[in-house]
Amino acid sequence: MSGRRVDINTARVEELATLLGVGKARAEAIVERRQNINGFNSILDLTTVPGIGNGVVDQNSNALTCGAYISHSPPSSSLHPHRHAPASSASPPAGTRAGPSGHRASTSGLKQGTGNSRPSSSGLKLGRLRPSTAAFGAGVRRSAGKAAASKGRTSTLRSILSTSKTGTSRTQNRHAKLGRRASATLQRFSTSPSTCRATRRNKSLPDVQEDSDLRSRVSLRDLSCRASTSSASSAASPEPNQGPKSCIKRKSSSAADEKSPKGNASPTKKLCRTHDALSHRHLPTTTSILPGSSSPHKFNSSRVAQYQQDNLEAPRRRLSSRLQLPSNLNEWLKTFQNWNVPEQRLALDELINHCEPTLVRHVMSIIEPQFQRDFISLLPRELALYVLSFLEPRDLLRAAQTCHYWRILCEDNLLWKEKCREAGIDEVNGKQTRRRSNSGVPRSPWKSMYLRQHQIEYNWRFADIKQPKVLKGHDDHVITCLQFNGQRIVSGSDDNTLKVWSATTGKCLRTLVGHTGGVWSSQMSNNIIISGSTDRTLKVWNADTGQCIHTLYGHTSTVRCMHLHGSKVVSGSRDATLRVWDIETGQCLHVLMGHVAAVRCVQYDGRRVVSGAYDYTVKVWNPDNEECLHTLQGHTNRVYSLQFDGVHIVSGSLDTSIRVWDAETGECKHTLMGHQSLTSGMELKDNILVSGNADSTVKIWDITSGQCLQTLQGPNKHQSAVTCLQFSKKFVITSSDDGTVKLWDLHTGEFIRNLVTLESGGSGGVVWRVRANQTKLVCAVGSRNGTEDTKLLVLDFDVDTQKL
């Protein structure tokens, strides 16, 4: 640039394009902006041009000047209908800029009677400068005008800050009170939600400034919404000795008032509504604190516009009405309004710097709510529900307490159906109905089911255990087998009988008499019960009537195990054979021979039979042609337990190992080592295996990788052999010879608590069998030395659905 300065009000596109970071496109935008606003007031006004930020202005600050703007278009008074120059205006003194007819008065103009303050709105007569005169005196105006303006602004700012520090009593207490009143007044001026939209001047800084000071961006940008300088009535009848304020341009509010007599915002702009507007609560009307103002003003006028569209008054935060406003407050506010945007920002910045921290927090508490948006209520219902679907159920319950509309969204049935699916809740109880909650919003059946499941889980973990139902009926005999389907409990004993109990009332419904030996195995499906006995027979019973439907003869020794699938049952006996029976006809369909020792365990999936025996082997059978498909060899002792899911076979043996086999190929995929004794019981679900052992430990395995995930032990472990176990998606329930039933966390392996503790535990009391469903636990207890009565204990962890 070779030391030459560029006047932003007279430079051509070619000259402006030579500036750093400008270029031709931005230079054309500067010229267009200059023509639209009839010239720039200062270099800072360049930031109103799209693409020109503070960084560009700072880089070229030494090469830029702001002289008088020369309009090449005929003057038009319609641009500013609320300001009219007098018919005979004198020529302005040096240092002023053209007035409202196309030329502006410079901000460095002089007030009457002083030489160091900013131009006053009263007593300053503005006229029209000839182009030649304006160009000739540009250098003088730039130097003298800027110095005078700087002095004037500094003097006025100091006087305002001085006013906020001193009062009539001129004491320190009065100083603090005036500070609070000034802050409160600024709040009313800047954030009053009950007033109409504040009009903006044609020249303003952009919404986003490249400013490193965060406080300036908040307090200076967001608080700088200003009131117009005059109403329609004051424009028609100006006060004496008061000329037109041509140094600050403002939009007229008269046109908007004529179109919208009630003060409503333009209906063409769709604005956000808060929950108060949704619920149609009418709020008290408030008025402006500025006397003589026909158009009240506020901060965040877009929100007020929406309230006005709904014929509602926006809520407004007010200080106590007992506080008295300072006498010079209105003059202070008018002076603030007459400044341009940079001056107002500087004033606010200085005012905040002079405030105590408590006042700054007060201002922050007023500003922050203005930027809060209830975006959920503003979204279409489908999008709102999509957003809410990412919340956890606990967060959904909290969100439902926010407001009525959020409550409606958070009760959406499909939303809670998805949450139930994620939690593994497959179906809603058929008795559930869509009843209304206390708030009048229909409650989702899926939500009720989820809450019920959550409460049930809480009851298992933490709630006080209710007094269990005690079912006595087998005298002092051992309960050898136990079945439970939610409504009925079937217990088999070595007293040759089976008993059918009501799980709800605890009453004995039926006693099934017919076997001539002890009952050692049983199965139940709906109202059909099958039992196997030491008398070498199986019997099929009707649980409703207690009638024996069929007696199945064929085995030549004790029927030690069986497995029911559909209408077929497979039984294993100490005679080393397996038999397949049709329980509807009572016929023996197939006999599977191949084992050379007693069959101890059997599994049947309707297609293949898997059996484990005392001959150390596991066999896979095709029952239709009575063919042995695979003989799985590897165990070095008796096989006592089996699990079969159609793909994997898991066998537990007295040799302390657990083996995982491929059912199709017969290959041993994993050998699970870790137990020290007989694996007495196992359960397999979704590739997770839980095994209980006579070494008093329980282990959780992943059969796909062969890894032991958890070992349930520690200071709260069982003190004797594990007799039975069962697990769900979250819990593991184990029983032992030590007379306890323990609850463990499946995923962490942590001990939760004891569910049953027999007084005779450790001295002969034993828990032989456990069966559980979602809400109930059935335990078969007794002793081998007479220290504990043989009985069934039924524990209930269900909840009252009416309380949900």
Automatic annotation (TrEMBL):
Keywords linked to the UniProt accession: Repeat, Ubl conjugation pathway, WD repeat
Comp. bias (Low complexity):
153-166, 227-237
What residue stretches are annotated with the F-box domain?
A: 373-419
Superkingdom of this protein's organism: Eukaryota
Region Disordered: what ranges?
73-303
MF (Gene Ontology): ubiquitin binding
Is the keyword Isomerase assigned to this protein? no
> Which InterPro entries does the entry link to?
F-box-like_dom_sf, F-box_dom, RuvA_2-like, WD40/YVTN_repeat-like_dom_sf, WD40_PAC1, WD40_repeat_CS, WD40_repeat_dom_sf, WD40_rpt
- Repeat positions for WD: 485-511, 512-551, 552-591, 592-631, 632-671, 672-711, 715-754
Please identify the protein, giving its name as recorded. Answer: F-box domain-containing protein
Species source reads Patiria miniata (Bat star)
